[in-house]
Design goal:
By secondary structure, the chain is mainly alpha-helical. It is 62% helix and 10% strand. It has five helices and six strands, in the order E-E-E-E-H-H-H-H-E-E-H.
Length: 209
């Protein structure tokens, strides 16, 4: 159990078909990482965007169903009143066409928001995966990452591929043809300080000349 980034409640996380993992209290998406990794929680903005986009997608989907039902009802009534009143039939037909158009537009917006939600969630997972690699400071394989982040092997491979493509990790090939990933450690202060005297000495030499 750990504090939820969304609601702050001390709760367990539970598997989710759409989010992989979510808070058992508020239902917000969560990215797990086992071990003593010190989390920066930098994935929170992406998780919030994903949660909001998914809620908007559900809203647009509901609107498309409502408008689609109105279009179907208007079309059915149009066929019934055609023989009695052509004018009323034309008006109802116009309503059916407009409602159908709005339903289609709402459905497209719902799909677009679902795509945005998936991409934002992928960004959150990628960020945490980068933190895992940086904390390990050693070669990490897809099975290692899948175990640490409680995900499946295919997802772990996609995360590592995204990190490599975006420059967040270096990929190597072992003798057994398995891919390993790592994050190079930043230069230490001692190494940077060791270079500074050399630079000063070079400057003094040039001035002496």
């Amino acid at each position: 159990m750990s504090p939820c980034l969304h609601c702050g409640a001390l709760a367990r996380i539970e598997p989710s078909a759409a989010l992989r993992w979510r808070c058992s209290v508020c239902g917000g998406p969560v990215v797990p990482a086992a071990g003593d990794l010190v989390r920066s929680n930098g994935e929170l903005p992406s998780l919030v965007r994903s949660h909001r986009a998914r809620a908007m997608a559900l809203g647009w989907l509901a609107a498309s169903f409502v408008l689609g039902s109105i279009a179907a009802m208007a079309a059915g009534v149009t066929l019934l009143v055609w023989l009695a009143s052509h004018l009323a039939a034309v008006l109802l037909g116009t309503v059916a066409v407009v409602a159908a158009s709005l339903a289609w537009a709402s459905l497209r917006r719902s799909r677009r928001r679902r795509g945005e939600a998936r991409e934002a969630l992928a960004e959150a997972w990628e960020r945490v995966a980068g933190e895992v690699l940086a904390a390990r400071r050693e070669e990490t394989t897809a099975p290692d990452l899948a175990r640490i982040m409680s995900t499946d092997l295919d997802h772990a491979e996609r995360l590592l591929a995204r990190l490599s493509a975006h420059g967040g990790a270096r990929v190597d090939v072992r003798d057994d043809a398995e891919l390993t990933y790592r994050v190079d450690a930043p230069p230490s202060e001692g190494a940077a300080g060791a270079e500074q005297p050399g630079a000063e000495a070079t400057g003094e030499t040039l001035r002496a000349r």
